[in-house]
Write a structure and sequence with these properties.
Blueprint lengths: L2 H13 L2 H7 L4 H15 L4 E4 L2 E4 L1 H25 L7 E6 L3 H13 L6 E6 L2 H9 L5 E6 L4 H10 L2 E9 L2 E5 L20 E4 L22 E4 L2 H10 L4 E3 L4 H4 L3 E5 L6 E8 L6 H18 L1
Parallel strand pairs: 3-4, 3-5, 8-9
Antiparallel strand pairs: 1-2, 5-12, 6-12, 7-10, 7-11
Helix pairs in contact: 1-2, 1-4, 2-3, 5-10
Length: 302
């Protein structure tokens, strides 16, 4: 196995086409194909499946490429340090539920990244896609929460996908509402006191099972429900309709200065954490992201 073969495999995965990858790495298509065939024979795995529509990465290939990209990133950092020229753009992707501290940590990683070029991705998406992104190596880190209502089901799914959960913090549910909301100055809110107001929740697409919900208080218990897909729409509806949503309460000011959080009188707890593929080390960007998240959460809860 050579470094050149790792570069070829990474290029094919990125392009989804052997011919396009060959152009990108400046070799002939037969040479690239033969190099990949030799690599797969040496490793005794199929990294790609071939069809008339192109190539696709296999499950074994995803695991291999995750490790290969760590090596390529290390080589790029060494080249940048000693030659002043990186050989590969750093890559990093994270998928998460709508947590403002995760966005802030992602920005810290981007600001502190010293590369002249990089390829970073932040996906705020539905719970099922977060799990699938990490399981299929589309994202290095996923962020979601466990609670008494969803833990048994999600733990089962995470185990099946060979994903580990690392807790960042535990919090009691909080109601997020506008500063001018009639309940905004309350020290604590009971669920029944929210009946007159719209409950704004994140829609979960086709996977709308209760254990995939992003909010710890079930929407089926509410009289007025509105589902959205993005943070900006939720904020506008919370403010414009005197609506509310339920979250952990951590870093509420970063969510939006016009939004306040009030403790919700509810027995359940929210355990927010990260999910990762077990046995695969974090990239430099992944390590920086984890450190930034932990620092932000620790400071906010101090």
């Amino acid at each position: 196995m050579t470094l050149q073969q790792l570069k070829y495999a990474d290029a094919v995965a990125a392009c989804g086409s052997i011919s396009e990858a060959a152009r990108r790495v400046f070799v002939t298509q037969p040479s690239l194909t033969e190099s990949l065939r030799a690599l797969e024979e040496e490793l005794r795995i199929a990294i790609f499946t071939r069809s008339s529509r192109g190539v696709a990465v296999t499950r074994e290939g995803e695991e291999f490429l995750a490790s290969a990209r760590l090596i390529l990133d290390d080589v790029s950092r060494i080249a940048a340090k000693y030659t002043g020229k990186a050989v590969r753009r750093p890559q990093f992707a994270v998928s998460c539920q709508h947590f403002s501290f995760a966005v802030e940590a992602f920005m810290e990683v981007v600001k502190s990244n010293g590369a002249d070029a990089y390829d970073f991705t932040l996906r705020e998406t539905v719970t099922s896609e977060i799990i699938d992104d990490v399981a299929r190596h589309r994202s290095e880190i996923g962020i979601l929460y466990l609670s008494g209502r969803n833990e048994k089901a999600l733990r089962k799914i995470l185990k099946k996908e060979e994903l580990g959960f690392e807790e960042l913090y535990e919090a009691k549910p909080h109601v997020f509402l506008g500063r001018k909301h009639p309940l905004a100055k309350r020290k604590c809110i009971r669920p029944d006191e929210l009946d007159a107001y719209p409950y704004i929740t994140y829609e979960q697409g086709a996977e709308n099972a209760l254990y995939f919900a992003e909010e710890v208080m079930p929407a089926i218990d509410r009289k007025k429900n509105i589902r959205v897909r993005d943070r900006a729409t939720m904020t506008n509806l919370v403010l414009g309709l005197n609506g509310f949503t339920v979250a952990s309460g951590v870093h509420a000011k970063a969510y939006n200065p016009a939004i306040v959080s009030v403790p919700l009188r509810m027995d359940d707890a929210i355990r927010v954490g990260t999910i990762r593929r077990e046995g695969i080390p974090l990239s430099a960007a992944g390590q920086a992201f984890m450190a930034a998240m932990k620092a932000i959460v620790t400071q906010d809860r101090a």
